[in-house]
Design brief:
DHBP synthase; 2 domains; 11-stranded mixed beta sheet; 4-stranded parallel beta sheet; globular; binds threonylcarbamoyladenylate; binds magnesium ion
């Protein structure tokens, strides 16, 4: 791909307009959401969406999430069942993605859905994302703004480190509050958890009044390609559930543990740990850590999403 000059944009009305104009012209703009930074493009333009795949080096079978301003906009592109509407009313704007039947006349590029007849949609809560969506006025396809298979970005500096010279602009909106990607729920044969994320599954089950189905284990031919095993990976090898530190390892701690170089949350707070997770993995990368041990993290609430990302970080690489 041809190198591009990557503009750094702030939060002024002028810069927001500039970011929206770049999207309208078919360009690529990274922007903050409350979960992670997204790499946005006009979801109706094939060439713009193809450029996302090229900039990330992403396998082309991996479909993208479309970001919209509100549930009314979502209903223009998708069929919203009563069950989906209930989740939307409770959790949007927020860290929940719904996979819904795509309307035939929606005008969404087939590169966004990778040919599926469903569309993943999300209404983000971040005021910066909302301002950009309002200024642009259309559907914005946006995967996380990192090279494919690498750690997701939770700051503009992370985006720049991964994609400088490959995208048109980065909107710097500071650090992402949630820090892990959205929870993804599909409705094929009943509400199903396709990816653990920023909204705990327990909260979604409480809203639905029953258990979520669970998608099959990670494979190379995934239902939701966020299930690809090696993903979110730092450069060093990762060992999970560590209660000791071996020679040559650095410890990424959780709670009151001895000898941790970095600690996801000294108080054992899962919300704080989620917000720190990717930033600390980026930090370990920058330090050149070759062997990373990670303390056990409880597997409930946001801990499920944290363990999911850590398991992928620890998975065998190609
Ligand atoms: O928090 C987030 O979700 C962030 C921010 C930027 O919104 N986005 C994000 O996008 O994590 P990405 O592309 O890294 O992950 C999208 C996930 C992938 O696992 C993809 O396979 C799944 O959504 N997905 C997209 N469309 C789908 C569909 N029609 N059916 C099933 N899974 C789908
Ligand atoms: Mg991603």
């Amino acid at each position: 791909m041809t190198p591009r000059r990557t503009e750094m944009l702030g939060l002024s009305a002028e810069d927001t307009r500039r970011a929206a104009d770049i999207l309208a012209a078919g360009g690529l703009v990274a922007f903050p959401t409350e979960t992670v930074y997204g790499l946005g493009a006009d979801a109706t333009k094939d060439a713009a969406v193809a450029a996302i795949y090229a900039a990330k080096g992403r396998p082309s079978f991996n479909p993208l999430i479309v970001h919209l301003q509100d549930v009314a906009a979502v209903a223009r592109y998708c069929e919203v069942s009563p069950e989906a509407a209930r989740l939307a009313a409770t959790f949007w704007p927020g860290a929940l993605t719904l996979v819904l039947p795509l309307r035939r006349d929606a005008g969404i590029s087939r590169l966004v859905t990778a040919g599926l007849d469903t569309l993943a949609v999300r209404v983000p809560d971040s005021s910066v994302a909302q301002a950009l969506l309002r200024a642009f006025g259309g559907p914005v396809a946006a995967p996380s703004a990192n090279p494919s298979g690498r750690i997701s970005p939770t700051s503009a500096a992370h985006v720049r480190a991964g994609l400088d010279g490959r995208i048109d602009a980065i909107v710097d909106g500071g650090t992402c509050a949630v820090g892990v990607e959205s929870t993804i729920v599909g409705f094929d044969g009943g509400a199903t958890l396709l990816r653990a994320g920023g909204i705990p599954a327990e909260a979604i089950e409480a809203c639905l009044g029953g258990p979520l189905g669970r998608a099959v284990e990670a494979t190379d031919n995934p239902v939701s390609p966020g299930q690809l095993l090696s993903h979110y990976a730092p450069r060093g090898a990762v060992r999970l559930g560590a209660t000791t530190v071996e020679p040559g390892e650095v410890l990424l701690g959780f709670g009151h543990v001895e000898g941790a170089l970095l600690n996801l949350s000294l108080n054992g707070d899962l919300t704080e740990a989620a917000a720190n997770l990717f930033a600390m993995l980026h930090q370990l990368d920058q330090m050149g850590a070759e062997h990373i041990a990670v303390s056990p993290v409880p597997n409930h609430g946001l801990g499920t999403a944290i363990n999911d990302r850590l398991t992928r970080a620890a998975a065998p690489r190609d």
